[in-house]
Amino acid sequence: MKQMDIPRNRLVELDYENDDFSGPVKDLRPVVWIDEQGYSCLLGPDPQEGILGTGNSVKAALPDWEQQLKARVRTAGASDELAQYVIDTLRISKDDVW
Fold first, then answer.
1. Positive or negative CA dihedral for 59, 51, 22, 28?
2. Which residue, among 9, 5, 29, 33, has the nearest Cα to 17 in the 3D structure?
3. What distance in Å separates the CA atoms of residue 97 and residue 53, rounded to the nearest whole number?
4. What is the rounded CA–CA span in Å between residue 27 and residue 17?
5. Residues paired with residue 46 on neighbouring β-strands, in sequence order
6. Which DSSP symbol is given to 44?
7. Is the distance from CB of 53 to CB of 67 less than 8 angstroms?
8. How far is CA 38 from CA 46, 49, 60, 97, in A?
9. How far apart are CA 63 and CA 78, in angstroms?
10. pLDDT along the chain (98 residues), means of 10
11. Which H or E element spans position 69?
12. CA separation for the pair 53, 69 (Å, rounded)
């Protein structure tokens, strides 16, 4: 799965092993960055095709990303490769979204 390249000076480094993070964050390792609008959290090649969460802090962007992740998996069509990647990686079914 292709992940969007973010300029290093905008990246927010996360310790994905931190116990404060949920299983989906630890397993999928979305990229987090800061810009003029705030913090963004993304899994995928770009904000349009990927799963994007935003907030005014990392602690706000990550839960927003998880909500977007759940919604994407629940509504995914058979051709949604990113949703299938999430389902396979987290070992969940489309109907059994945590």
1. negative
2. 29
3. 17
4. 9
5. none
6. S
7. yes
8. 17, 20, 10, 28
9. 26
10. 93 95 96 96 97 98 97 93 95 74
11. helix 58-75
12. 9
User: Residue 47, Cα to own-chain centre: how many angstroms?
Assistant: 10
**Locus of tokens 């935003």:** 54
Structure tokens at 50: 């990927």
> What are the E-state strand segments in the chain?
31-35, 38-43, 51-55
- Look up residue 4 and give its two tokens: 């969007």
44 within 8 A of 50, measured Cβ to Cβ: yes
pLDDT at 25: 97
Q: Sheet of 38-43: strands edge to edge?
A: 31-35, 38-43, 51-55
How far is 4 from 88, CA to CA, in rounded Å? 20
Structure tokens at 45: 């090649």
Q: Return the residue matching tokens 């990927």.
A: 50
